[in-house]
UniProtKB/TrEMBL annotation:
The lineage of its organism: Eukaryota, Metazoa, Chordata, Craniata, Vertebrata. InterPro entries: ARL15 (IPR042292), P-loop_NTPase (IPR027417), Small_GTPase_ARF/SAR (IPR006689). GTP binds at G59, L60, T61, G62, S63, G64, K65, T66, G105, N162, H163, Q164, D165. It comes from the Eukaryota. Mg(2+) binds at T66, T83. GO terms for molecular function: GTP binding; GTPase activity; metal ion binding. It holds the Pfam family Arf. Belongs to the small GTPase superfamily. Arf family. It comes from Gallus gallus (Chicken). This is ADP-ribosylation factor-like protein 15. Keywords: GTP-binding, Magnesium, Metal-binding, Nucleotide-binding.
Length: 224
């Protein structure tokens, strides 16, 4: 049996030492990787809270306020009942939560709307774009009253021309002209958008625009 020469023994020792160092280095890299993954998965702090805004939602009976808000909250259509007094819904979005106070739109309730305006940060006005001329005129008067009300006149408005899926629906341009929005709401922050239950993505996009206006209002110098 041949004997290992001193030079060969030295080479073997050096090789084993190098291998040992590589293995230790590999284990160290693995530990760092596992620790980093663990922190990312298990030790990540909670996401920042979404801002919440208090809104008031108004419009005549039959304009579709309740149905739109219920759909945004993913509620079953079978459980939707027209609001006779008022109801409050927390409508979640990715970047905000809207606490919407919906007011009934019947004749005997509208005169009390202003009692519920206090504390609102924005307004949602829903109108039936396919309604009769008389109802459209009433909606026009109610919107004008809201736009000029002392507690609402400085707030952003989202005006939804609902029921666009109906044959008699008026276009957004027709609504804008009939409601005289350009002269009346000049200098105010308002959005007029068509909508229907058949296109909830468009409804969500409209609410996202309103959220942008609410966020802009948060950063106004007068509110700091």
């Amino acid at each position: 049996m041949s004997q290992v020469q001193p030079s060969e023994e030295k080479n073997i020792f050096t090789h084993l030492k190098t291998m040992s160092e590589c293995i230790q280095l590999s284990f160290a890299v693995c530990r760092i990787g596992i620790y980093t993954c663990f922190r990312a998965l298990c030790c990540k702090g909670p996401p920042p809270p979404r801002p919440e805004y208090d809104l008031v939602c108004i419009g005549l009976t039959g304009s579709g306020k309740t149905s739109l808000l219920s759909q945004l909250c993913s509620e079953s259509p079978e459980n939707i009942v027209s609001t006779t007094g008022f109801s409050i819904k927390a409508v979640p979005f990715q970047n905000a939560i809207l606490n919407v106070k919906e007011l009934g739109g019947a004749d005997n309730i509208r005169k009390y709307w202003s009692r519920y305006y206090q504390g609102s940060q924005g307004v949602i006005f829903v109108l039936d774009s396919a309604s009769s001329e008389d109802d459209l005129e009433t909606a026009r008067n109610e919107l004008h009253s809201a736009l000029q009300h002392p507690q609402l006149c400085t707030l952003p408005f989202l005006i939804l021309a609902n029921h666009q899926d109906k044959p008699a629906a008026r276009s957004v341009q027709e609504i804008k002209k009939y409601f005289e929005l350009e002269p009346l709401a000049r200098g105010k922050r308002w959005i007029l958008k068509p909508c229907s239950l058949d296109d909830m993505e468009a409804v969500k996009d409209s609410f996202s625009l309103l959220i942008n206006l609410l966020e802009e209002r948060d950063f106004e110098p007068s509110r700091m």
